[in-house]
């Protein structure tokens, strides 16, 4: 089992443990805000399972029906997670609306808040693991799960502080207000996840900073060529696809042109591990005098 797959499986176990703790905090207190926090953890469990399935599927090698691999499967996981967050937010808002008309003081607030804080600490620690592994493996699914957990941690801290304030002040309407704010926060988080994942499914180009490094690597390691143009990039899960046209002198041998391509590919793969690079070699009559000009 790969490290990425082990981390995805660990996310399912962590999400279940955190859900159990948050449900316990809600049962102890009866707080609507803690109910909202627990409901978000239900989404975490579903999202963790979806991430595990997506990571397993994306690790499958290319085949006859999927010659470019299965890495885009991770984007479907992130889209599903965003959609689940939206559903959870709607349920929380409905519960909060009802609690505004019939508010009640939280019971056993101290114990419930301690349980909730323990769950939040676990989430914070695991989010750090997901971010680190997501960057290492260039996995959109793990990174999306990490971002969601960070949003969950921030939400939980606000809920803990708010429920504590309700217990101390006796201002009961603060509890459903916190639940509503929690719903709006996770709704924003879910919308951002969907936006980023749809961008991957739509083959958006890489971010400007990475694009600049790609252009620099091409121009720096293409000595002997005339120019490179029509540079195109896209992400597909953890893989970055790069393609462009390389113009060389018409008298250059195939061996010499191939050597230039090898140098460029080596430099690009040093920047992005696992990049898939396609270079179309053209004679000098095809030069466009724009694009990635060779220095």
From TrEMBL:
GO BP annotations, alphabetical order: intracellular zinc ion homeostasis
Keyword Electron transport: no
Domain named Cation efflux protein cytoplasmic: residues: 212-284
Pfam families per the UniProt record, alphabetical: Cation_efflux (PF01545), ZT_dimer (PF16916)
Superkingdom of origin organism: Bacteria
Any one GO cellular component localisation term in the record: plasma membrane
Main location: membrane
InterPro entries: Cation_efflux, Cation_efflux_CTD, Cation_efflux_CTD_sf, Cation_efflux_TM, Cation_efflux_TMD_sf, CDF_Transporter
Topological relation to the membrane, as annotated: Multi-pass membrane protein
GO molecular function, one term: zinc efflux antiporter activity
Membrane spanning stretches: 12-36, 42-61, 73-93, 109-129, 149-171
Domain Cation efflux protein transmembrane residue range list: 11-202
UniProt keywords, alphabetically: Membrane, Transmembrane, Transmembrane helix, Transport
Compartment list: Membrane
NCBIfam families referenced in this protein's UniProt entry, alphabetically: CDF
Family stated for the protein in its record: Belongs to the cation diffusion facilitator (CDF) transporter (TC 2.A.4) family.
Protein name from the UniProt record: Cation transporter
Taxonomic path: Bacteria, Pseudomonadati, Pseudomonadota, Alphaproteobacteria, Acetobacterales
């Amino acid at each position: 089992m790969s490290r990425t797959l082990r981390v995805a499986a660990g996310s399912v176990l962590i999400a279940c443990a955190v859900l159990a703790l948050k449900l316990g905090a809600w049962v102890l207190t009866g707080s609507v805000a803690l109910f909202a926090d627990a409901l978000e953890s239900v989404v975490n469990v579903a999202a963790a399972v979806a991430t595990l399935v997506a990571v397993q599927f994306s690790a499958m090698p290319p085949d006859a029906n999927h010659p470019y691999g299965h890495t885009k499967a991770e984007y479907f996981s992130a889209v599903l997670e965003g959609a689940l967050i939206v559903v959870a937010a709607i349920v929380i808002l409905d519960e909060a609306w009802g609690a505004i008309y019939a508010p009640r003081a939280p019971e056993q607030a101290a114990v419930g808040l301690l349980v909730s804080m323990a769950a939040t600490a676990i989430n914070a620690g695991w989010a750090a693991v997901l971010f680190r592994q997501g960057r290492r493996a260039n996995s959109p699914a793990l990174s999306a799960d990490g971002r969601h957990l960070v949003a969950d941690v921030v939400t939980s801290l606000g809920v803990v502080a708010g429920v504590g304030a309700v217990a101390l002040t006796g201002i009961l309407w603060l509890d459903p207000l916190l639940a509503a704010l929690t719903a709006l926060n996770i709704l924003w988080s879910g919308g951002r996840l969907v936006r980023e994942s749809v961008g991957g499914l739509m083959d958006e180009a890489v971010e400007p900073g990475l694009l600049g490094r790609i252009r620099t690597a091409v121009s720096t390691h293409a000595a002997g060529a005339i120019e490179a143009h029509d540079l195109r990039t896209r992400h597909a899960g953890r893989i970055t696809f790069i393609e462009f046209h390389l113009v060389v002198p018409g008298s250059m041998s195939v061996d010499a042109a191939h050597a230039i391509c090898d140098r460029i590919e080596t430099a690009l793969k040093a920047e992005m591990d696992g990049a898939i690079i396609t270079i179309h070699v053209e004679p000098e009559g095809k030069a466009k005098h724009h694009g990635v000009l060779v220095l």
